[in-house]
Amino acid sequence: MKISVIIPVYNAEKFITQAVESALQFDDVFEVILVEDQSPDNALEVCKNLSVKFSRVKLFQHPDKKNHGAGASRNLGIEKASGEFIAFLDADDYYLSNRFDAEKELFKNIETDAVYGAIGVEYYSEKAKEQYYHIYQDKLDTVYKKTNPKDVCPGQMNLRGSFGLIHLDTLTLRKSALTKADRMFDVSLRLHQDTEFTTRLSFYLNFYTGINEDAIAIRGVHENNRITKVETKQINPASTKVLYWQKLKEWAEKEKRIPLEYKTHITRMHRSFEIANANFPKKLGMIFKYLILDYPSIRSGLYNINFREGLL
C-alpha cells in the first residue's frame, strides 16, 4: 500500500510529534502531510523541524497563511496527497500498531472504497479525565457490528436505530474513489464537518468495516480539546446539530439519486433540532405547525429538548 496520512495542525505543539511518529511506524505510509492552520502556539516550528528530520513528512499551509479550520485543512491535504490511499489523523491523537492490518486485506477487493475501525481513548492528565470522562469514558467508539456497505450511509443518519461512530482517525480511503463524491469536506461547518463528510461520502462509496473489536487508533483527551470544550459548555448542543442537519438537507435536495426515505428522515431530523434550538415562543409555533404537517418531527424535537436538559 502507498498511504498518505493527512494531519491538520492547530494548537498542537505538545502532541504533533507523537502523532507523526505513530504514522511513520508503518512502511506503507508513503507520506505524512501536515497542514498547519495558523496555530497560536509553537506548532509551526515543531512541524518545520519534523519535516526536516523525516523525509516522509511534508509541511503545507494555506496560501494566505490564515486559519481556515480542520475541514479546509484536510481538503488541502487531499489535494496535495500523492498516495494511492488516504488516511486521516488528528494532531493530538495517534495510531496503534494494528492501524492498517484490515486495510491490507480488504483493499485487495477492488470494490472496497473505504475501510473504518474502532478508536480508543487516553486521558493525557488527571484533570482532563475529571473534566471529560463523562463524555468518552473508557469505551471504544466504532460502528457496533460489521455492516454491509449499503447500510453505512443510512446507519450514520440513525435512520434505522443506533449505529455507532466512524471516526476519521480510523478511516482509510482509496483516493481514486473520491471522484465518485460530489465534494470533499464542507468548509462552512466548524463542528460536525467530519460526521457530515463520512455520512455523505458513504452514500457514494463502499465503506467496509475493518477492525471494530479493538482500537486501531487513540483519541487523546486533554484540557484544551477544541471539540470537547464545545461539548461541555453550557449551551444548547442542538445549535450545532441543526447546522449539521441543515447541510445534509441541502445536499439531499440537490442529489437526485437519494431515496425518498433518506430525504424524509433528513428533513425530519433537521426540523427536530430546529424545534430543540428555538426560543420558547418560536418552539411553540413550530410544534403547532408540525403537529399537522409532520408529527414525528415534534416527537424527535421534544426528545432532543429533554436530552439537552438532562431529563432523559
Helix content: 40-55%
Number of helices: 12
Side-by-side strand order of the widest sheet: 3-2-1-4-8-6-9
The low-confidence runs, each spanning 5 or more residues with pLDDT under 50, are 228-235, 303-312
Structural class, by secondary structure, is: alpha/beta
Shape summary: globular
CATH class of the largest domain: Alpha Beta
Number of domains: 2
Content of β-strand: 15-25%
CATH topology of the largest domain: Spore Coat Polysaccharide Biosynthesis Protein SpsA, Chain A
* Rg over alpha carbons: 20 Å
SSE ordering: EHEHEHEEHEEHHEHEEHHHHH
Number of strands: 10
Summary tags:
43% helix, Glycosyltransferase, disordered C terminus, Spore Coat Polysaccharide Biosynthesis Protein SpsA, Chain A, seven-stranded mixed β-sheet, globular, 312 residues, alpha/beta, Nucleotide-diphossugar_trans, three-stranded mixed β-sheet, 2 domains, Glyco_trans_2-like
What do you see in this structure?
By secondary structure, this protein is of the alpha/beta class. It has two domains: 3-231, Alpha-Beta Complex (Spore Coat Polysaccharide Biosynthesis Protein SpsA, Chain A); 238-308, no CATH class. The chain is 43% helix and 15% strand. It contains twelve helices and ten strands. It has helices at 16-24, 43-53, 70-80, 101-106, 126-136, 152-156, 193-204, 226-232, 238-254, 260-277, 280-293, 295-308, and strands at 3-9, 29-36, 57-61, 85-88, 94-95, 114-116, 118-123, 172-174, 207-209, 215-221. The strands form two sheets. A seven-stranded mixed β-sheet has the order 3-2-1-4-8-6-9, with helices on both faces. A three-stranded mixed β-sheet has the order 5-10-7. Strand 2 (29-36), helix 2 (43-53) and strand 3 form a beta-alpha-beta unit. Helix 9 runs antiparallel to helix 10, helix 10 (260-277) crosses helix 12 and helix 11 packs antiparallel against helix 12. The radius of gyration is 20 Å and the shape is globular. Mean pLDDT is 88; it is low at 228-235 and 303-312.
